[in-house]
Amino acid sequence: MDSANWGAKVVARSRVFKPAGLGPFPVALILHGCGGKTPFLETYAEVAVKAGYAAVVLDSFKPRGMSTIDGKLFVCTLMTLHGAKRAADIFGTLAWLKTQSWAQADQVFLAGWSHGAWTIMDAYAAGTSAPTATGLPDADPVALRRQVKGALLVYPYAAYPSMTSRRGWGPGAPPVWSVLGQKDGVVGWRFPKKALDRLTADGVKVDLKLYADATHAFDDDKANDPRAIYRPDLFQEVQDYFAAALKATAPPRPLFS
């Protein structure tokens, strides 16, 4: 299957949010964690809409015939659907956006949580091997760098087999906004920080919010992991942080007389 057709299949099982009007709009792609698409991500989609973006909350499981139980049993345990393979959803959706009149396909912002952030990171780190890594024969690393203007990485998985610390992202990487919690008992914070430090050393612009008392999934009020402690105050802070990142990378608005 080619990228655009795979993207159409993914988006058909996902949810699209749009501002009022016909567009075209810049687009935020929102990628869930290994437990599947959860309601709190739609709050972030609404933040994007308020910032003038369309938002697509991608579902990486349904197009593959997977359930949230499959995610917890097999994806969260690294048995299947590693970040590089799941990056097919990014390449596919970017190709699909080019066919949509409401979308500014060259003005995309990527936002990922946990496994979703790993997916974004591996999409870049895979480099010219992206077609092999994703399984899409036409996955286009050049288009990724041309279309995407920024990325938000929230408590990303960055230990092995994540590739960023070893490979970096190569030339043309977008600016990165990131959120880590020093009480994260799922992905930790040292491996993600190491990956972000690699990007900084390579010349990527990286902004970091490091919360001393935040756990994994602190912004998910329905997280059922005992290691996750919901923090509504930090949830609001990250919404504001996301809005600021979107504003910083938004295309200039046309002037009307």
Keyword list:
FrsA_esterase, carboxylic ester hydrolase activity, Dienelactone hydrolase, Rossmann fold, 7-stranded mixed beta sheet, Dienelactn_hydro, alpha/beta, hydrolase, 257 residues
Query: Structural class of the secondary structure composition?
Result: alpha/beta
Radius of gyration: 17 Å
Shape: globular
Number of helices: 11
Percentage of residues assigned to helices: 25-40%
Written as H for each helix and E for each strand, in order along the chain, the element string is: HEEHEHHHEHHHEHEHEH
- The CATH architecture is 3-Layer(aba) Sandwich
What low-confidence regions span 5 or more consecutive residues with pLDDT below 50? Answer: none
- How many separate structural domains? 1
CATH superfamily: Alpha/Beta hydrolase fold, catalytic domain
Oligomer: single chain
Measured by DSSP, the beta-strand proportion falls in 15-25%
Order of strands across the main sheet: 1-3-2-4-5-6-7
> What is the class in the CATH system?
Alpha Beta
Major beta-sheet overview: 7 strands, mixed
Q: Look up the CATH topology.
A: Rossmann fold
Give the tally of β-strands: 7
Please state the average pLDDT score. Answer: 96
Whole-Å distance between the termini? 46 Å
Protein name: Dienelactone hydrolase
Pfam families: DLH (PF01738)
Domain Dienelactone hydrolase: 15-242
Keywords: Hydrolase
